[in-house]
Here is the input.
Amino acid sequence: MVVGNSKFAQGLQIYLLSRDHSCLKSEFQLGRGKIKVDCIENLPAVEVKLGEHVFLTVGDYYLTERKSH
Here is the structure.
């Protein structure tokens, strides 16, 4: 992922929030926990990792945080 690029982060956030939750979940399952986002205008393609860059539920985030402490 691109570090420090707020325009990119905002575009990625808008893209992910606009997606249907069940379709997004299915894409991550098919991609073995990863998806490639390459449809944000004027921004490079990026690989997004489930549980590292994005969480689909609050519970997933909470469990990851508990494991790291």
User: Anything to note?
Assistant: Residues 6-18 form the longest helix (13 residues). The chain has one domain: 6-68. Helices lie at 6-18, 21-30, 58-68.
